[in-house]
Every structure is written in C-alpha cells, then in structure tokens.
Specification:
The chain has twelve helices and no strands. The two termini are 17 Å apart.
C-alpha cells in the first residue's frame, strides 16, 4: 500500500462529501485493523465496508463457503434444541417415561446456549449488532423453554428420578444466556450511553496501542490530504484549519458525525 493513501485519495477526489471524510480516514488507518475496527462503531453504515475488518480472510473461498454451510444448521439448532429440552422434561412430568432425561435435556440446552452466546459475542463486535431483527425473539426462544424445563429438572433430581442430573447445569446455563440476550438486544434505558462509552474506550485503546512513529505517519498522511483538499478548494480554509487540529481518530467523527447521514450516497460501494 502507498505510504500516503489518504493524500492520494484527496488528489483523486472531484467533489467532497461527509462520506469522504470517513473513506479518507479509513485509508489512512487501513494498515491497523484494530483501529479501523474501533472506528467502525462510530461510522455511518455506508462506511462500514471500508472500516469493519474484524475477521481474517485467509481461509479462502472454499473455507468461507464451508463456514456458511455450517452456520445455517447451527442457527436452526439453537432455535430447536431448547424446545427439545423442554419436551424431554415435560414428557417425564406427565409420567410418560419413568426417569427424567435431565442429562440429554441439559446437553440440548447447553449447546443452544453456547451458540447463542457465540452469536452475542459476534454481535457485540459489529456496528449496530445489538439491534438485529428477530434478536429479541431469539432470546425468548431460549428463556421460555429453559424456564419451563429447569424447575422440572430440579423436581426430578429432588425425587431421585433424574437420569444424568448434571445436565441441569446446561438448562440453567441456557436460561441465563437467554435472559442475558433479552437485556443485550433490548438495550434498556441508559444502554445507549453505556455502549457509547464502551466504544470510545475501545477506540482510545486502539490509538494508544499504536507505535508513536505509526501515529505520526497517519497524522502526516491526513494533514497532507487536508492540504490537498484545501488547495483544490474542495474544502474551505476554516474546515481545513479545524481538521488539522483534530487528534488521531477524531477527524470523521467530528466533521461528519454519523447522525448527519440520512441520504444514501451512490459512492458508498466504491
């Protein structure tokens, strides 16, 4: 990559919009994945592609396809397994079987809870991942069946009729993860401010982790780009002055805050 990617972007520009501030900064920090990823949480959706690079791409096309094929049954399983676990317990409660298969139910629920927890960890690393469609319903599909199965499992254990009593751990675990998912995806009052602080701390850590020489290189590239934009009258002198005074990782956040993006820009996919 060129040592001055931001400056080259500025030289190639013919017009300048708010989106360009994000694309400019994305190019300036592109060699530092932790920083690009941290910036993505502040970026408008049109800039995510240029910033969010949290997953390695070295597995090849076949590896990515295999991963996709595995994800589909895994998602289906996390919806079905808690229901199967509840059915196992309800079947014993109505005396259809002599002993309660707590161990089997616990395995079902534990696997489902582990997959939901994995999904939450991925969502937490993705911009707006906590507001995914259907996520709240997904949490309920874990909470309700496990809330039914868990007390039945404890009842069976207390009566000495449980097969694999340790399985209650999986049931309790799935219930706990489901409750956590309801809170995670619902984002109760004050959660937006908390999330903002977490994102800001992540960004500060990414900046502080840079070698001082790397910081200077990025800032120098951005300042060259700003000078180019000012010379070509794509930005005003006042804007250029403000841009030069901003610290690292604050350029686009200050000059083009995410809230200002309401109209789709056709250059988002370039």
């Amino acid at each position: 990559m060129s040592p001055t990617p931001a400056a080259e972007y500025a030289r190639a520009a013919t017009v300048w919009t708010d989106l360009d501030w994000w694309l400019l900064e994305a190019r300036a920090v592109a060699r530092h994945p932790d920083l690009t990823f941290a910036l993505a949480f502040f970026a408008p959706p049109k800039a995510w592609k240029a910033l969010a690079r949290s997953e390695p791409t070295t597995n090849g096309r076949l590896g990515r396809k295999a991963k996709g094929w595995l994800m589909v049954p895994a998602h289906i399983a996390t919806l079905v397994l808690p229901l199967l676990a509840a059915r196992e317990m309800i079947t014993w409660l109505f005396q259809s079987v002599p002993t309660a298969p707590v161990g089997r139910a616990g395995i079902f629920a534990g696997l489902a809870g582990a997959w939901l927890l994995f999904g939450m960890s991925r969502a937490a690393r993705t911009p707006d991942g906590r507001t995914g469609d259907g996520a709240l319903a997904l949490g309920l599909l874990h909470v309700v069946p496990s809330a039914v199965a868990t007390p039945i499992a404890f009842l069976a254990i207390s009566q000495g009729e449980a097969d694999g009593a340790i399985g209650v751990v999986g049931l309790v675990g799935d219930l706990a993860v489901g409750i956590a998912a309801l809170r995670f995806y619902r984002a109760p009052g004050g959660a937006a401010a908390t999330t903002g602080r977490v994102n800001l701390r992540r960004l500060h850590r990414a900046v502080e982790a840079l070698d001082p020489h790397e910081r200077l290189e990025i800032l120098a590239d951005l300042r060259r780009a700003i000078a180019v934009l000012e010379q070509r009258t794509l930005i005003t002198a006042d804007t250029a002055r403000t841009a030069r005074e901003l610290p690292l990782a604050a350029l686009a956040r200050t000059l083009a805050p995410r809230e200002t993006f309401t109209v789709p820009d056709p250059r988002a996919n370039r």
